[in-house]
Amino acid sequence: MSQPLIILYDVPAAIPQPWAPNIWRIRFILNYKHLNYRTVWVEFSDVEATLRGIHAPPTASRSDGRPIYSLPTIVDPIRSRSHPTILSNANIIAEYLESTYPARPIFPEGSCAVQSLFVHYIQEVFAKPLLPILVPLTHQVLPERSQAHFRGPGSAVQLTGAQREQAWRAVQEQFEFLAGILDKNNGADGNGIVVMGHDVSYADFALCSVLIWIERVSPHDGWARVRQWNNNRWVRLWNKCKDYMDVL
């Protein structure tokens, strides 16, 4: 039986390659597990209508109870083409792909809990100082319809030179802290580059997804800085993950 064609929903950009870190986490898994998939591109202004149309679950609710629809979303017809599995939320999708397609695991035995904590840290703490830098730059690389969808007070406020340098110092502090933690993997049985010490895992894909976001929207400023930090540690992680960066 041929492997089903999974559909991954992603947002387009004016730059050649996709940028969204949460969606890259899923693309990494699909590529790593050698799963058969294709990408469907959906502009931000069409996300809710598109996901409602395929009966995708919402990922959150507004204060008034209205559902919030967001990407990534996948459609997997493994059990039935007429009633496929449709999932949103990167962590839910990651755990589903691991349980449904266990070959080439991204959660080594006994690591799901600690990796989930690490990914939560990456999303909620580590990446936060990047937001005032990268959100305005990301806005600039969106198609015009998506730019208009987000246009409003403060939607694309560029930092001044001094503000940008201060923001990058805050980013570097997070990278320095994380490098110190990962250095604990150094030794006879670990190389200190990947989170689990040996092979790439979901935690590495979550971290490298942030690196991709920096490289895609700020290649000459942001990535030029980051790639030099911590003895080129982040370039070495990038190289560990680069075989799984295909966009299908």
Automatic annotation (TrEMBL):
SUPFAM superfamilies: GST C-terminal domain-like, Thioredoxin-like. InterPro entries: Glutathione-S-Trfase_C_sf (IPR036282), Glutathione_S-Trfase_N (IPR004045), GST_UstS-like_C (IPR054416), Thioredoxin-like_sf (IPR036249). It holds the Pfam family GST_N_3. It comes from the Eukaryota. Coiled coil: none annotated. Residues 10-105 form the GST N-terminal domain. This is GST N-terminal domain-containing protein. It comes from Daedalea quercina L-15889. The lineage of its organism: Eukaryota, Fungi, Dikarya, Basidiomycota, Agaricomycotina.
